[in-house]
Amino acid sequence: MRKSLILLTIFLIAFFSFAGCTQKEKLEKVRVGEVTHSLFYAPLYVAIGKGYFKEAGLDVDLQTTAGGDKTMTALLSNGIDIALVGSETTIYVHSQGAKDPVINFAQLTQTDGTFLVSRKKVDSFSWRDLEGTTFLGQRKGGMPQMAGEFVLKKHGIDPQKDLNLIQSIEFANIANAFASGTGDYVQLFEPTASIFEKEGKGHIVASFGAELGKVPYTTFMAKESFLKKDAKTAEAFTKAIYKAQQWVDTHSPAEIAKVTAPFFKDTPSDIMVKVIERYKNQNSYATNPILDEEEWNNLQSIMKEAGELPKQVPHAELVNTKIAEKAIGQ
């Protein structure tokens, strides 16, 4: 009897160990490159933290690729499978006659995610205060810079004539350059902007997102060949993102901060809550992954105003909404 019990125990341990290994092996690895690491992408971290990708059978390998050009290079060279970056990059690739175009298939953010940070504390800010100052801008041709210029022009400021505009600094080094004393104003993502404010390195005076309106600022994209070959993977990925978007939309900044905290270990919890609240209040987080035609046209208007639009591209040519529509059950 005792021998039988021992054999049964060994069998059960072996069975569940095998079952666990099998379950783990079933997860399909997907390499994702994010253009920067920011709470602006909270739904992505929620999808990982809440286990939504694993539920969908995916093992997401997330890496920060620091900058639109580097992110797109990683995607085109098969260093990553999916990129999270500004939709303008797909237009640039398309204009170069790519045989395997990059297609936007799931939108994550729907406003600009940057804030205007002043070195000095300003009691009553006016956009005209920027005239004659040194402005530390983003990379030329990138969405942050084009969005920033669009907002400045909206307030009657010519970035090339009315400012000392610096665009020569690498994306990943902009914050450090400002902290080291370069510029009177800088355009920064969160949580860096709020951390600088807390540390007395700068003061947030305005939001580019609140000024700009809705655009497909950051989307998940992949090469057309990947979306055809791995259609089920793209669908599973998008379903997980949609689930996370819905969770973020219906939960408080404090709850979201708790889930995303492991991804921002050096960021104080009070800063995280403040940042997420700021993004939620200006509707930066898309509540579903569909990139619609109106937003696509708004993007191209901004690019055209900045002199960076190679050629008008129809929505249907570089945007696949079928994956997102299927993900939300339309």
Automatic annotation (TrEMBL):
Renumbered to this chain, the signal peptide range is: 1-19
Q: Does the keyword Signal apply?
A: yes
Q: Does the keyword Signal apply?
A: yes
Q: What is its main location?
A: periplasm
Q: Which domain of life is it from?
A: Bacteria
Compartments it resides in:
Periplasm
| Pfam families reported for this sequence | NMT1_2
Keywords annotated in UniProt: Signal
Family, similarity comment = Belongs to the bacterial solute-binding protein SsuA/TauA family.
Question: Under which name does UniProt file this protein?
Answer: ABC transporter substrate-binding protein
Q: Which organism is it from?
A: Ectobacillus antri
